[in-house]
Amino acid sequence: MIKRAFITESSLAGLIGQLAESGRRVLGPVRSGNRVMFKEVCSMEEVDIDHIVTTVSPKEALLPRCEEIVRWKNQGKETLMADENNPAVPTVVYGLRPCDARSVEALHAVYTWDTDDGFFLSKYDTTTFITLSCRHCDEHCFCVATGGGPGDTAGSDLLLTALEDGLYLVEIVSEKGQALANEYDSFFTMAHPGVMAGSGAESGHGAAANPGGATQSGATAQSGAEAPSGTTAQSDAEARHGTTAAPSPDQIDKESYLADVEKHFDLDTLRERLEKAFDGPVWEEQSLRCLGCGACAFVCPTCSCFDIQDETYGTTGQRLRCWDTCGLGQFTIHTSGHNPRETQAQRWRQRIMHKFSYGYNRLNITGCVGCGRCSRACPADMNLAEHLIDIAGAK
Ligand code: SF4
Ligand code: SF4
Predict the structure, then answer these.
(1) Which residues line ligand 2 (CB under 6 A)?
(2) For residue 344, which atom of ligand 1 is closest to its CA?
(3) For residues 280 and 276, what is the distance between their CA atoms, to the nearest angstrom?
């Protein structure tokens, strides 16, 4: 069962700062012009949360766009092999969206389906995801149609939902999330801080270590958690929750704080129609303006294909695993020159089928979380949601 607590904005900033000081790699969304990208951060001041989703997904934390998997050195007639030298660094990803967190489950299914991929798993095991629910969406978001939602907990370790000014509801979703909450227990509270500050009410200091527990009798206002501007926060909370008493975390109606994401199509209907669409004209029609540039896959949180490349430098070399995509013409080309997917229509079909049909049939996953990045990034204005509605029919 998911446990709940509160954290204030200032405590959250303190938490991020301490996580960075602890030697962990902390990745957060950082704005540069009109792009927001996940970068290593030391403090909350570097982080941008005023965006719908980042330009590129946070999957690089688990699946770098290029990673060394083996290296070698030629010595005379001998080739000396060595394992890669890029050990997983304990990492916290802060500020990803629920669709991004959900994509981690899809990646995990792919990278463990027939054999465990050690490069992926070593990062997965040492990464904690602190997700931010969505209070806003845009016309490209369709997470709800793919089975997710703006407050979905899937794939997150901690999920934060912004409530009144400067206050967040914390949902502790996983054991990793609980371990982090226990380690940094003083930043979390069970008592509504707006009420704490305004009324001098007793606080639940140390709440995250015992998030289901009762407020500790006799505790004074929590020192690690500054209250947000008290009366506004308190009255807003009272208006939303219909009570003059301070709401506990479990009494928070999270849904009332979330973006209203439209359900554009029905996923089951889409899957049924895809089963019969393989030889239909829709792929040619839809892919006419696709340039085959691959931008859609490179921003996508669930695209998981890679290529292996050997780079040599004199007598040394390294083998790299690099992102690749079925949207590129050379992806399936054989050494004979034959390409079983020689047209962009065939490649578009593969992309859609893999995400919405094959992945579901083989691994019980949907290889799309409806983040809309592919549509935002496409130079030819291909809109995935519109194409899926064309196939499934609008909901
Ligand atoms: S970004 Fe657009 S043009 Fe480029 S491959 Fe994807 S759908 Fe085609
Ligand atoms: S296919 Fe597009 S909408 Fe779906 S997860 Fe990938 S980038 Fe997001």
Answers:
(1) 299-302, 355, 368-374, 384
(2) 8
(3) 8
